[in-house]
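To the wet lab folks,

You asked to see what we're planning to order before we commit. Fair enough. Below is the target structure as tokens, and below that is the sequence we designed to fit it. If anything looks off to you, flag it before the synthesis order goes out.
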């Protein structure tokens, strides 16, 4: 039986919901508000806390379905659109989007996205393969950008990226406990051919990120839909390269699978204009 599972969690009314996240960047430096600064030197297992507004495109998604509520992550790609995973919104009747901050209980802005503005890829297949696992949400009104609310650059076909990358979110930590504050961890970008040693069904529509070793940093339950971020090799701009899709059930093999954003650019642009 395949151990890979979707990386989202049910939100119980009396339960705190959170994510294991990650921050990594090129070389020995860390990304913060469009600047490079000294990277944390200690080893990241369950992630380290992000600084305030370090990733101003990060959003928390509370998805309502007839089976309950689920937590996922997402990324602001312009002033009215969020990029996330299709498996997050399967059966969704609405999505509460919270933006602007690190504390998921105290975000600057909240908006409700109704079903008609949830644009999951029409070719999504899951839960075994998670092909075309990508969604664009259209917000009911435009965001006002601030220090804590900014869009992230979207990977384009043919662009090259440094292999030292970053993940971030509010999902489970290695100990299986939720976190209230955004966490980050450094990961490596792997090609599909390398990733198939862990997940044989990975295709060119997907990329992998993680430490590549047992119990190393990776995304976990609750991080679905959040970004795999890498630095553009030409512009050095931090860019969303993947959206978190699935991984090993116990989050122990140090590897996660992400939808390859560049593969879906044409589709993403069509959804933005819908």
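Sequence we intend to order:
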């Amino acid at each position: 039986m395949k151990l890979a599972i979707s990386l989202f969690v049910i939100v119980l009314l009396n339960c705190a919901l959170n994510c294991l996240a990650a921050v990594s960047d090129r070389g020995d430096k860390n990304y913060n508000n469009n600047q490079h600064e000294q990277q944390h030197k200690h080893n990241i297992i369950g992630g380290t806390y992000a600084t305030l507004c370090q990733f101003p495109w990060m959003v928390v998604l509370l998805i309502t379905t007839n089976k309950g509520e689920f937590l996922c992550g997402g990324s602001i790609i312009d002033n009215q659109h969020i990029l996330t995973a299709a498996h997050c919104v399967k059966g969704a009747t609405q999505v509460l989007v919270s933006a602007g901050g690190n504390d998921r209980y105290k975000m600057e802005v909240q908006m409700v996205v109704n079903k008609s503005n949830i644009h999951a890829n029409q070719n999504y297949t899951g839960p075994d393969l998670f092909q075309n696992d990508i969604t664009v949400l259209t917000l009911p009104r435009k965001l006002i950008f601030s220090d804590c609310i900014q869009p992230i650059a979207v990977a384009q076909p043919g662009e090259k990226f440094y292999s030292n990358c970053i993940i971030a979110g509010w999902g489970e930590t290695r100990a299986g406990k939720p976190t209230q504050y955004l966490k980050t961890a450094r990961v490596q970008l792997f090609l599909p051919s390398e990733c198939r040693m862990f997940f044989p069904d990975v295709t060119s529509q997907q990329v992998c990120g993680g430490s590549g070793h047992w119990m190393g940093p990776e995304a976990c339950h609750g991080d679905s839909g959040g970004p795999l971020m890498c630095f553009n090799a030409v512009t050095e701009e931090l860019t969303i390269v993947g959206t978190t899709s699935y991984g090993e059930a116990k989050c122990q093999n140090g590897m996660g699978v992400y939808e390859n954003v560049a593969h879906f650019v044409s589709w993403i642009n069509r959804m933005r204009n819908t």
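Structural context that might help your review: The CA atoms of residues 63 and 95 lie 5 Å apart. The two ends are 39 Å apart (CA to CA).

Thanks,
Computational group
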